[in-house]
Amino acid sequence: MQNWLDYYQLKYSRNSSKRPMVKTGFLGCCGEKVDAIDHYTSKIEKLSEEIDDERARVQKDPKSIMPAAFVSFKTRWGAAVCAQTQQSRNPTLWLTEWAPEPRDVYWENLAIPYVQITIRRLIMGVAFFFLTFFFMIPITLVQSLATIDGIENAAPFLKPVIEKSFIKSFIQGFLPGIVLKLFLIFLPTILMIMSKFEGFNSISSLERRAATRYYLFNLVNVFLGSVIVGSALDQLKTFIKQSPTDYPKTIGVAIPMRATFFITYIMVDGWAGIAGEILRLKPLIIYHLKNFFLVKTDKDREEAMDPGSIGFNSGEPRIQLYFLLGLVYAAVTPLLLPFIIVFFGFAYIVFRHQIINVYNQEYESAAAFWPDVHGRVITGLVISQICLMGLLATKEAAQSTPFLIALPLLTICFHRFCKGRYEPAFVKYPLQEAMMKDTLERAREPNLNLKGYLQNAYIHPVFKAAEDTEDEEFINRLENETELVPTKRQSRRNTPAASKISTGSSPSLPEAVQEHLEP
């Protein structure tokens, strides 16, 4: 309603000789003709009163109280003790954990009970298993058809056309990669919906879970499903008849044979994907369609131009897959490595530019993705070592294969050491560090008072509008009192209403403020 009012006010300012009129019927196509500015002004006033009444009713309704709360502490030490200890004898009665940043909260999942979350995650785990397994069947069938022999067997009348050199090169080179890419278009959206159903309470945790499953899906269907070509049932039958010790040998024989496919896949998905990322043809087309049909005010244009945030749930697992391919084929088929190097070179340049100059930072997760990334790198190392053992077992160097068993064992031991030594830094907060920072803060800024911000930081966005003015005054006062150092360009779009602090896309706040925001 406010947007329509802005549109008609802008229209009247351009031609003040005639007041804009609008019909009050269905979609403005029928009904009584009234003054548009007066009509939308009265509508907004009426809706504002209803919203205020509804806010007051919900705040007084005991049935609207959620079984979850955000607790702010005067010291980091108190927050660390509470978040990292068990609060009651019954471990499911009162659960405490580190709260996400205000922008990172996924409000829809806060009220889900503990037992229901457990059941939901079990259901989604089973659903993901069947999705991964049964998705292999259409992929392998289409992959087998997307070859010269497969097309000739399925459609013999196309043989004269297929035998032409240009079409034959396209089918052998790019068709399997394109078909596989088409199958994976909607997968990130499906996995994100599954993660939301599981009940995670932050956007970063939703993207981390979706990224983990996307990587597993790529590992099983793109890597293993493409290495061992044929129908899914034949693969299953072959593996059932073999002993487990023969699995590495089977994969080791098949891996060099699929190097050509992965080279074309890197060119189709990797190189073309990076080119599409820098060109952003899809957002460009969508923007012009919106600009032509929907944009009426500056607010509409700003929303149409909003680039959004970078998709960690799909981009990061894809890069991890190429890292896996590089590790596997480094010793098996080194010819693939230049294509991987070119991809990573382009990806570094393009994504660095996009993150700094294009995308908006939606939230700050305090490097929560890094343990997952490290684990996937270790997984790629172990898989490459097992594949190398399987390949050497089929060659004359079979006697050296038992000595290679030490490689995956040492890699796993290294991973366990890193997990025990460094992972706590990502999931826990040392009390010693908390006490040191509290002491330094009291000495450097004895008059710092974050109470005004903390009272409203975690209010639900529905109730946030009434508190916006106070938050803006508080943040402006902090920024005026402190020397600021810009970290990157100003974002085109301001921080969403859920939070008045934007870390990364706006000048940084004092260290003490950011430290309080992390818990």
From TrEMBL:
Domain CSC1/OSCA1-like 7TM region residues, every copy: 120-392
Gene Ontology molecular function terms on file: calcium-activated cation channel activity
Keywords: Calcium, Ion channel, Ion transport, Membrane, Transmembrane, Transmembrane helix, Transport
Residue ranges, compositional bias (Polar residues): 493-508
GO cellular component, one term: plasma membrane
Sequence intervals crossing the membrane: 122-146, 166-193, 214-233, 253-274, 321-351
Location of region: Disordered: 480-519
Domain CSC1/OSCA1-like cytosolic residues, every copy: 2-109
PANTHER family on file: PROBABLE MEMBRANE PROTEIN DUF221-RELATED, PROTEIN OSCA1
Protein name: CSC1-like protein
Originating species: Rubroshorea leprosula
